[in-house]
Design goal:
Isopropylmalate Dehydrogenase, 10-stranded mixed beta sheet, two-stranded antiparallel ribbon, 14 strands, binds 3-isopropylmalic acid, binds magnesium ion
Length: 358
């Protein structure tokens, strides 16, 4: 089959991890007889430098016309002092919104081989960690009204956190559907003891839950959830939460699995089109040094094959290849531990390539 993929390498380590990922996809295409056509486009800091804007129209057009979008990372210190609307991160938010990608799926799985990289004690890890964070992605405080004004005590700034029933309902459905394919447990995370938007969230989630009597639902306040994640991560299956809480908790979930360099994500809307990106950022401190871990991006490509293209076998082949490379004791710096073999970005990509179909 033929698939058109828009590729946004972006800033920092983005281009390095994307390069390895494209090679992996090309190999998968060869072995399984698919044609992946890649169209590279600019967004973020590099787009500011080249064209003076964070998200050129052409980029948005190409993304809209493609079957899926693969993204590296956006942002960096060079552009940190720009006003909010002109920051590279804003390009990401605009893309998510413009493509209608309201459901962000972030699986946090601990590979057995990476147990040593996990900062938690073995008795806390137990049988391992396998959590799926389902984060609402196009609403909440990220997209509410924001601004500045002169108040009684001087300058004030505000970001409104707002949710509509429809927005909560559709993301809740996504979470319950995913839970059904896993261990049938949803923990909805909110701050209903304080926030009105959380009280609406909770009541809508409860309504949706009625259609999923086979899925166990519990609610948790976000402060407690942050604590429970390090106290007893095994209690979680699917975590359903808002845009900002999901941003924070998914970073935490990634770290307890060993490294933020391992976690992929899929952003989905009503149809099969999705955007796939690692959950880590552009890591400017190690950019261009062949140190970045490409696994999160390669795993994101696997998610793309599974969710947007319905290519389960191909996705599994990539995941298996990664497991094999880890089993063979190869590690990038972020997941390095005693007696392992340290490799760079390119070498890690090459090792994964060699395992695919082999
Ligand atoms: C993420 C990132 C983004 C977010 C930033 C870069 C805008 O942290 O995808 O988790 O907050 O959503
Ligand atoms: Mg984040």
């Amino acid at each position: 089959m033929n698939f058109n993929i828009a590729v946004i390498p972006g800033d920092g380590i983005g281009p390095e991890v994307i390069m390895e990922t494209i090679q992996v996809l090309e190999k998968v295409g060869k072995i399984f007889n698919h044609k992946f056509a890649f169209t590279e486009v600019l967004a973020g800091g590099c787009a500011i430098d080249a064209q003076g804007e964070i998200l050129p129209e052409e980029t948005l057009d190409v993304c809209k016309e493609s079957d899926a979008v693969l993204l590296g990372a956006l942002g960096g210190p060079k552009w940190d002092n720009l006003p909010g609307e002109k920051r590279p991160e804003k390009a990401l938010l605009t893309l998510r919104k413009a493509l209608g990608l309201y459901a962000n799926i972030r699986p946090a799985i601990m590979y057995n081989e990476l147990k040593d990289a996990c900062p938690l004690k073995p008795e806390i890890i137990g049988d391992g960690i396998d959590i799926c964070v389902v984060r609402e992605l196009t609403g909440g405080i990220y997209f509410g009204e924001k601004g500045r004004k002169n108040g009684k005590m001087g300058e004030e700034a505000y970001d409104v956190k707002q949710y509509s029933e429809v927005e909560v309902e559709r993301i809740a459905k996504t979470a319950f559907e995913i839970a059904r394919k896993r261990n049938s447990r949803v923990t909805s995370v909110d701050k209903a003891n304080v926030l009105e938007s959380s009280r609406l969230w909770r009541s809508v989630v409860e309504k949706v839950a009625k259609d999923y009597p086979d899925v166990y639902l519990n609610h948790m306040y976000v402060d407690n959830a942050a604590m429970q994640l390090v106290r007893d991560p095994g209690q979680f299956d699917v975590i359903l939460t808002t845009n900002m809480f999901g941003d924070i908790l998914s970073d935490e979930a990634s770290m307890i699995t060993g490294s933020i360099g391992m976690l992929p994500s899929a952003s989905l809307g009503e149809d099969n089109k999705g955007m796939y990106e690692p959950i880590h950022g552009s890591a400017p401190d190690i950019a261009g040094q062949d140190k970045a871990n490409p696994i999160a991006t390669i795993l994101s490509a696997a998610m793309m094959l599974r969710y947007s293209f319905d290519l389960e076998e191909e996705a599994a082949a990539i995941e298996k290849a990664i497991s094999e490379v880890l089993k063979n004791n190869y590690r990038t710096g972020d997941i390095m531990s005693k007696d392992m073999k340290l490799v760079g970005t390119k070498e890690m990509g090459k090792l994964i390539l060699e395992q695919i179909g082999g």
